[in-house]
Amino acid sequence: MIGMQLQLFDDLPLPPRPSQFCDEITHEIIGKIMNPVLVWMYQGRYSPPPSQIDEVKEDLFTAIQWDDDSYEIAKNLEHAGWDSDSDLVDILDQISYHRLDAHKNLVYNDWILKHGVTPKFSLGEKIGFKFKGKTEIGEIIHVYHDSAKYVIHCSHHGHVKSGAGTHGHVIPFEECFSAEIS
């Protein structure tokens, strides 16, 4: 059953895996792109005084909170009164990379290490998981301990065990459950 692995020591529930769209990650992304954005602004028609930097950060936060697509983010900024151009879009192209990197670090440092998260199942075990609304059964062919995820091979999905091709679905451990197969 889903949720069976979500207990910590002393029967405390495991907090949910941090979202890649959490505020902490969005603030970290802003910290990484703020200088290039300000350089872009100062080279253009708008040079915000130091008293307005917080407003720039708020605009960026709102624009990137739920989006990684640089073009969509630029459109979001235009709705806030910005004059976006290709140079800004080039800066915004880095957001998806920064989000992925920040999320990976947050999951590892503030979830896996802090809570002692260890995937329950091992290589070769058959496990169940939900895929496109349907319960699927597959074999674990790799365990990512640094992200608490499994690579689950499902031959009926066309996965291959060696060579070129898709080897399996990458599924968070907390979304998997034991699958007794006779």
Describe this structure in words.
By secondary structure, the chain is an alpha+beta fold. Helix content is 39%, strand content 16%. The protein has 5 helices and 5 strands. The protein has a 5-stranded antiparallel beta sheet, with no helix packed on it. Helix 1 runs antiparallel to helix 4 and helix 3 crosses helix 4 (86-92). The relative contact order is 0.14. Residues 1-5 have low confidence and may be disordered.
Compact overview of the structure:
The chain has 182 residues and is α+β, with helices and mostly antiparallel strands. The protein is 39% helix and 16% strand.
How far do the termini sit from each other? 18 Å
Cα shape: elongated
Q: Which strand order spans the largest sheet, edge to edge or round the barrel? A: 4-3-2-1-5
Number of strands: 5
DSSP helix fraction: 25-40%
| Strand composition percent | 15-25%
Largest sheet: 5 strands, antiparallel
Evaluate the radius of gyration. 21 Å
Uncertain stretches:
1-5
Q: Can you give the mean pLDDT?
A: 91
How many domains?
Answer: 2
